[in-house]
Model the fold of this input.
Amino acid sequence: MKDVILRHDGSFDGFLSAVFTAYERKLIKSDIRLRITNTNAPADLFARSFELTTDPEKAQRVWRRLHALWGAEGVRYFLKGALYDCTERDTVLLGVIRHSIANAPRSVFTDYAHDDILTLSQWVKSVQREMHRMKAFVRFAKAADGIYCAPVAPDFDVLPLIAPFFARRYADQRWLIADMRRQYAVYYDLTSTTLLALDELAIQGWEQQNVDAEEPFYQRLWQDYFRATNIAERANRRLHIQHMPLRYWRYLTEKQHAPKPITTEKK
Done:
């Protein structure tokens, strides 16, 4: 059996272009072990490897085909799985596409006996769990320019999925949620959301806490509230960490080193 690897630039359009190439070059055969991966993945000396250029037109053709195959709900399900971060992601997604096309028009997303379908379902659950946690663990701070900003570092790339939730919840405020791990942000300007790249200077700005003059007061207020509502005699650290994993604490206001409780009026 021949091993063939199609490498792309790491974008979702790049992946769809690779899928197009796989069918165009008739690489979907039983005697070929095909893998799709990005250019940062480790090389395999024993496989034929092809570097592909992302072609938006080819990507759109594949995307329209998948939309016709699965419908809007199926496409959303597939996209959630595509946000899972791991090296074998593209190969599993290709397996799902192959299985879907081979069994069209029947829906295959409940074929859990198929390895790739089962893996996709597990990834979707993980991404949905991360979405749920991010909705609860985002903490905004008012910046000096009046924009409410929140740094986060989710395990998976869920910002595009949670942005509509915050746009509805804080529709009358300009806000920005920054994924510090992937170095990009989603910005809401009171009418729409936009994806922005973050550079090193922006990240350093976060670290320096360039916040509004009144923001420390409100942060202390929140920390005091969190401390006052806790019952020390009933504290269960293990359960607490189970519901609020330690990896999220870095950007949670109530988990920072709180100053003395507020006992005087706001200055």
